[in-house]
C-alpha cells in the first residue's frame, strides 16, 4: 500500500519557516506585502484567492486583493498592474488566472516587474529557470520539488515523467527536475502510448486536468506519484488526475487530492513572496551601506 505524502502537514512546516522570515523582516522595519489581482467573479478563483489571502495573513504578510470588474479594459488592467509594480509596499504581485474572456493574460503578466513576479511567469523568470539561474519560479512545481525533498525522495538519477506541458506546471517542473539531475520525459495530448511512457517513471507527475485519467496499471511498482490535478466532480467533491485507489496498490508513495500539491502551492507562494521581499531588503541595506561608506 502506498505511503500518503501529506501536503497539508508539509505545507504547515514550510509556512512556519516563512512566518519566521517574515517576522525577521518586520523586525528590520520591512513589512512584506502580497497583492493578488482578481478580475471578475469566477467562483473557483474566488475560493483560491480567499485561501491565499488567509495563508498570507496568517504568516504575517500585508495582504491586499485588488478586485476588478470582468469588463475592465485590457489597457486599464495593465495600468493597474504597472502601478502595483512601482508601489514599494508591494513585494509580490499575483494575477489570478484564468482571466475573463477577452483579456490577454500574457500581456498583463508582462506588466509585473520580474522581482515581484511571485508566480514565476514573466519572461525573465522563465529564462532564469531554463538557464539554471536565480529567479522566482512557479509555485506548483516548486511545491512538487519541496514535498519530494522533505520526504527524502531524490530527483537525481530518477526517471521522471510529467504529463502536461503548461507554463504553470508541466514545463517548469520538467526544468526544476532536470536542474536536479533527473532524466525527464514531458508527455502531453499527442504522446503515443501514454500508459507505456508512464510505466517508465520512478516519479510520475500528473498535471492534466482530467479526472482520474491515470490508471493503476500505468504506474511502475513502487513509483512516487504526484497528483497535481484538481477536478470538481458533479457532486462538488474534488478529485485528482490519478485513480488514487487503484494507484495506491502499486505506488510507493502518492499525494492525495485534496491535501497534496494544493496546500504546497500556497506555501510556495508565501515562500516566493518572502524571498522577493528579502531580496529587496538586502539590496536596500547593501545600498545604504554603500551610501554610508
Ligand atoms: P493546462 O490545461 O494548461 O495543461 C494541461 C496539459 O495536459 C496540456 O499540456 C495538455 O496537452 C495535457 N493533456 C490534456 N489532455 C491530455 C491527455 N489526454 N493525455 C496527455 N496529456 C494531456 O493545465 P494546467 O497545467 O494549468 O493544470 C493542470 C491541472 O493541474 C489542472 O487540473 C489544474 O486544475 C491543476 N492545477 C493544480 C494546482 C494546484 O495547486 N494543485 C495549480 C495549478 C493547476 P497539450 O499541451 O498537448 O494540450
How many β strands by DSSP? 11
Task: Give the cofactors and ligands.
Answer: NADPH dihydro-nicotinamide-adenine-dinucleotide phosphate
Q: Which CATH-level-2 architecture of the largest domain?
A: 3-Layer(aba) Sandwich
CATH superfamily placement of the largest domain = NAD(P)-binding Rossmann-like Domain
Tell me the β content: 15-25%
Q: Mean pLDDT, nearest integer?
A: 96
Spell the H/E element sequence. Answer: EHEHEHEHHHEHEHEEEEHEH
What share of the residues lie within helices? Answer: 40-55%
Oligomeric assembly: single chain
Structural category is alpha/beta
Query: What is the distance, rounded to the nearest whole angstrom, between the alpha carbons of the first and last residues?
Result: 63 Å
What's the main sheet like? 6 strands, parallel
The geometry reads as globular
Quickly count the helices.
10
Radius of gyration: 19 Å
CATH topology of the largest domain: Rossmann fold
**Overall tally of structural domains:** 2
Q: pLDDT under 50 segments (min length 5)?
A: none
* CATH class type of the largest domain: Alpha Beta
Write out the strand line-up for the largest beta sheet, numbering strands in chain order.
1-11-8-7-5-6
